[in-house]
Amino acid sequence: MMKRNFLFSLTALILCAALLAGCGGSSDDASSTASSAASAPASAAAGETRTDDAGTAAPNNAENGSDQLSAIADQLLEANPISNQFEISAMNIEYDFGLAAEDVASYKGIKSNDNGDAGLVLVIQPAAGKSEAICEQLQTYKEDQVAFYGNYSEFAQAQSNVENAVISGRDNLVVMVIASNEATADLGQAVDDVMNEYAQ
Question: What burial class does residue 154 get, using C-beta atoms within 10 Å of its C-beta: 0-12 exposed, 13-18 middle, 19+ buried?
Fold first, then answer.
């Protein structure tokens, strides 16, 4: 009887191991695909080489969420406290905002994860010569969000906040801020302050 139980247990273990091995292989493939998609960043990893519009190789030393961009984002969050913060990823930069990965050297972004709160702080270091293109695309994003929130009467505050979004860009810095529902500060002044301090 004990031998039979032992054999049943051994058979069950072998089957479980086979199943896990089969699942593990596909899971690893899926996770490596997902992780490579998520890490196909709007900017290349630090130390990698990228090319500019002229095709010249240029070192990319910027990192997503660099200390300077984090400091700018923190300063803007003081004026625009966002509830239930969600950190913007490279995938969001490309698919939600419609920005070309090669146009963005580095970024830091936080948005509200609350339904009906459009709160956003997005700070971007553009690739050389791409500041204007990024501002234009962010304006398109703004218009799309106004139209989206316009479909829901209960999101009137969010729609108004998006309509009053502040987008500002210079050669080395682009900022977009949408007031969170709880924000009361003058976000235009807050954006001007960071642009005067950090932008060229």
Answer: exposed
